[in-house]
C-alpha cells in the first residue's frame, strides 16, 4: 500500500504522460515533449514518457529533435540522481536499473559506469561489477575512485 503522496505523484505523472500523447496525436510535438518531461520530473519511473521522448528524438523535425535530445540529457541527470539516491540507501537493484537506463543512452557515461559497478558490487555480482569498472577505467585509467573499487574487486 503506497503512501498517499506517492499515489498522487504517480497519478499526476501518468496524467502528464497521457496529455503528452494526446498532444502528440494532435500534431503538437513541442507541447507533448513538455508534458513528457513534466511526467518524468514528477516520477522518474514514467517509462512511457521516456519512450515517447526517444520517439520524438528519432521521428521529428530537426528543431524538435534538438529539444528532445536536450530533454534526454535532463532525463539522464534525473536517472543518475535517482540511482545515486538508491545506491546511498543500499537499494542496489533499483540503483543498477537506473544506471542501466542512463547507459542505454550513453554507454560511456563515467558516472553511470562507476555507479553500475558499485551497485553490482553491492548485489555481490562481482563479475558484472568488473565489466562496468573496466569500461570506466578505459576512459579514466587514473581515477582514484575507480582504482579503489578495482582493489576491492581484485582477489
Task: Kindly describe this structure.
The chain is mainly α and 155 residues long. It has 8 helices and no strands.
Helix content: over 70%
The main pleated sheet reads as: none
C-alpha geometry:
elongated
Distance between the termini: 43 Å
Give Rg in angstroms: 18 Å
Strand proportion, as a percent range, falls in: under 5%
Q: Helix-strand pattern, N to C?
A: HHHHHHHH
Oligomeric description of these chains: single chain
Mean pLDDT score: 90
Query: Tally of extended strands?
Result: 0
Stretches where pLDDT falls below 50 for ≥5 residues?
none
In DSSP terms (H or I, runs of 4 or more residues), the helix count works out at: 8
Structural class by sheet pairing and helices:
mainly alpha
Topology:
Layout: H1 4-25, H2 29-42, H3 47-59, H4 62-88, H5 92-105, H6 110-122, H7 126-139, H8 144-153
Helix pairs in contact: 1-2, 2-3, 2-4, 3-4, 4-5, 4-6, 5-6, 6-7, 6-8, 7-8
Please summarize what this structure is.
By secondary structure, the chain is an all-alpha fold.
Keywords, separated by commas or semicolons:
single chain, 155 residues, elongated, 8 helices, mainly alpha
Amino acid at each position: 500500500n503506497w503512501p498517499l503522496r506517492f499515489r498522487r505523484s504517480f497519478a499526476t505523472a501518468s496524467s502528464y504522460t497521457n496529455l503528452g500523447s494526446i498532444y502528440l496525436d494532435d500534431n503538437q510535438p513541442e507541447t507533448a515533449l513538455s508534458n513528457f518531461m513534466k511526467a518524468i520530473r514528477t516520477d522518474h519511473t514514467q517509462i512511457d514518457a521516456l519512450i515517447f521522448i526517444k520517439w520524438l528524438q528519432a521521428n521529428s523535425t530537426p528543431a524538435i529533435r534538438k529539444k528532445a535530445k536536450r530533454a534526454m540529457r535532463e532525463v539522464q541527470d534525473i536517472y543518475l540522481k535517482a540511482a545515486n539516491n538508491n545506491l546511498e540507501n543500499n537499494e542496489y537493484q533499483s540503483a543498477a536499473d537506473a544506471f542501466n537506463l542512463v547507459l542505454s543512452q550513453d554507454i560511456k557515461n563515467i558516472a553511470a559506469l562507476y555507479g553500475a559497478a558499485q551497485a553490482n558490487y553491492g548485489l555481490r555480482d562481482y563479475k558484472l561489477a568488473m565489466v562496468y569498472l573496466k569500461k570506466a577505467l578505459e576512459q579514466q585509467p587514473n581515477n582514484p575512485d575507480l582504482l579503489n573499487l578495482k582493489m576491492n574487486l581484485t582477489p
